[in-house]
Amino acid sequence: MLIHSASQLLTLAGGPQRGKALGSLGIIEDGAVLVRDGKISAVGDSKELLASSPYEPRLDACGCVVLPGFVDPHTHIVWAGDRAAEFEMKMGGAKYLDILAAGGGIISTVRKTRAASIETLMDETRPRLARMFAHGTTTAEAKTGYGLESETELRMLQAILALDAAGPLELAATFLGAHAIPPEYKGNPQGYTDLLCAEMLPFICQWWGSQPSLAGRPLPFVDVFCETGAFDLAQSRQILTRAAELGFPLKLHADEFDNLGGASLGVELGAVSADHLVKTSAADIRALAGSDTVAVSLPCTPFGLAESEYTPAQQIIASGGLLALASDCNPGTAWCESMQFVIALACRALKLTPAQAIAAATINAAHAIRRSQTVGSLEPGKQADLLILSVPDYRQLGYRFGTNLVKQVLKRGRVYTVEAGASPSENGSL
Ligand code: NIG
Ligand code: FE
């Protein structure tokens, strides 16, 4: 199929964009993409590709923007229940970490998730994934972390894998058994840290290796919430070091509320990404800048908590770091399913240009889950994951918010049309 007549085709070609190179969109005016067997086989000028592929089925982009599907590299998308009552408390002045310490917050979602079957978890998650997809996210990371014991953590992992297999939104799994201290270990974080290292991580590793359907697939990421009231720096180091020994690639939640040195720890241990990065110090920024650890900013989290401090993105860019954006979609701090909103917020709160925010939400976000070889840009050989917007100028992303600008989504070459205000349906199925 030939997608042609894009006013602006944003290729994002050339790999992850570090420091001041962030925002290189690789724009082709009146652009076209040739898709074969779910992959991109050529990218170029519409007139040339129309002439060289005259018998190809065509999809007219009608003078609108075409760009890679968004990659959302940090979500907690699988959970049961909601926390609307806590939102009301927080808007009345209650603090997130105080609610957590009192047995609410993450722990209240843990109670509901432990009680939910895999079918319930999948039923509650599917509509969220459908809305993410309708808003242009074609690949996302998804974390466990609302079980905090092996059985429920495994059930969450199985839900993520089953939802990924069902598609169309592609998921990269992360084991976040170290998301909070479970009620059974209240007051004994070291006891739970030791349990994670001695039993839970080896159990997940062994389970993954025993699944014929996962043969050849790399282990999931292992993530830790390095934070006051969760895991301190020494415990985070212990968990991540054990995970690395077992062969897991690493991520961590760092500097969301307090600076414990998590970002520098992530760099030291070769983590794929360090995420949140609000209270990040100059030394942490220097460490990130000289590394391949992607700095993932989640601006919906301070926004969702009505806080005023955001990731020091300008310093990260100025010092040469790799910056990506994610939604952090979760029931506690940021129930946001739209990377378009993340981009709009990043422009205002992180002072990114629309071009920088788009690169941070596509090619750099793909690198934050180590999938930049297959998704995140429009280049021959990559998956045909792309969006056709309803607008002719890419700067409408960022400028506008609260309206879905995605008209059509292609995932591995299959076309899904987004009905205004509805979930997408595969062409022909409506
Ligand atoms: O990234 N910080 C820890 N985890 C999530 C919140 C999860 C929750 O509150 O349920 C976050 O903000
Ligand atoms: Fe998170």
Produce the secondary structure layout:
Elements: E1 2-10, E2 27-36, E3 39-45, H1 46-52, E4 58-60, E5 65-68, E6 70-72, H2 84-91, H3 96-101, H4 106-114, H5 118-134, E7 137-143, H6 150-166, E8 170-178, H7 189-210, E9 221-226, H8 233-245, E10 251-254, H9 262-268, E11 273-276, H10 282-289, E12 294-297, H11 300-304, H12 313-318, E13 323-325, H13 339-349, H14 354-360, H15 363-367, E14 386-389, H16 396-399, E15 406-411, E16 414-418, E17 424-426
Parallel strand pairs: 1-4, 1-5, 6-7, 7-8, 8-9, 9-10, 10-11, 11-12, 12-13
Antiparallel strand pairs: 1-2, 2-3, 5-14, 14-15, 15-16, 16-17
Helix pairs in contact: 5-6, 7-8, 9-10
The site of N-(iminomethyl)-L-glutamic acid has 13 residues, from helix 4.
Give the bound compounds: N-(iminomethyl)-L-glutamic acid, fe (iii) ion
CATH superfamily of the largest domain: Metal-dependent hydrolases
Strand content: 15-25%
Rg is: 21 Å
Count of discrete structural domains: 2
**Number of continuous helical runs:** 16
On the 0-100 scale, what is the average pLDDT? 96
CATH architecture of the largest domain: Alpha-Beta Barrel
Biggest sheet architecture: 9 strands, mixed
Give the tally of β-strands: 17
Low-confidence parts, pLDDT < 50 over ≥5 residues?
none
**What CATH first level of the largest domain would be assigned?**
Alpha Beta
CATH fold naming of the largest domain: TIM Barrel
Termini distance? 21 Å
Helix content: 25-40%
Overall 3D geometry?
globular
Structural class: alpha/beta
